[in-house]
Design brief:
The protein has 207 residues and is α+β, with helices and mostly antiparallel strands. Helix content is 36%, strand content 28%. It has a domain at 68-201.
Length: 207
């Protein structure tokens, strides 16, 4: 009977193991979620002052970005205008030199006659007149037969034109006013008439 009771005792569930002791001889306490509950209890919401400060900082950043974009757009627009004026000046220079090199005679406008043609040329193409506009020049060709043709050289701002002759060299100059916002537009084109061609100032008539 004693042996049977021993076997029945061995076949039962094992006895629970003892928890290891800490350094002071005390058993470890069971783990709980008190720590997470403690952290959660210390969390707080965003105050009104913090929200206002964040909104103010975001407004400053947005204002700076908009200012930079506007400045970049303004510089790009100004660069396009300058490139367009340079293209017009180059086109005018090529055409004026070609007309001067083929001219038989050249007549320049007098000082004090802003409405008179700047230059009147006579050549194989016919009678060529350069007349000032508010923002550029207009070139008119009147052939011996047929209707006249016009070609305009327009720039981005008003420009004042003058002409000068020194021997066979004819100079066409244009200057815009300096408004302080954009650099002054200056165009100078010089070309010499062929040998034997005549150059004279306007005698007061309107060619």
């Amino acid at each position: 009977m004693a042996a049977a009771s021993v076997r029945r005792r061995g076949m039962g569930s094992p006895e629970p193991r003892e928890r290891p002791a800490t350094g002071h001889g005390q058993p470890l306490a069971p783990r709980t979620s008190c720590h997470s509950r403690t952290l959660g209890s210390h969390r707080r919401g965003i105050s009104l002052l913090e929200l206002l400060a964040a909104m103010a900082a975001a407004s400053v950043v947005m204002g700076t970005a908009v200012s930079l974009v506007h400045t970049s757009y303004r510089f790009e627009s100004r660069s396009r205008v300058v490139r367009a004026d340079e293209h017009v000046a180059l086109r005018l220079a090529r055409q004026f030199r070609a007309d001067i090199h083929e001219a038989h005679s050249a007549t320049l406008s007098r000082e004090g006659a802003p409405d008179a043609p700047l230059v009147v040329l006579a050549g194989p193409a016919g009678r060529i007149t350069y007349r000032p506009l508010a923002q550029g020049l207009v070139r008119t060709v009147q052939p011996a037969s047929g209707p006249p043709t016009r070609e305009e050289f327009l720039v981005s701002r008003p420009i004042a034109w003058t002409t000068a002759a020194e021997g066979s060299l004819i100079t066409l100059s244009g200057r815009s006013s300096d408004d302080g916002r954009r650099p002054q537009l200056a165009i100078d084109v010089a070309a010499a008439v062929p040998p034997g061609a005549t150059t004279a100032p306007d005698d007061g008539g309107r060619p």
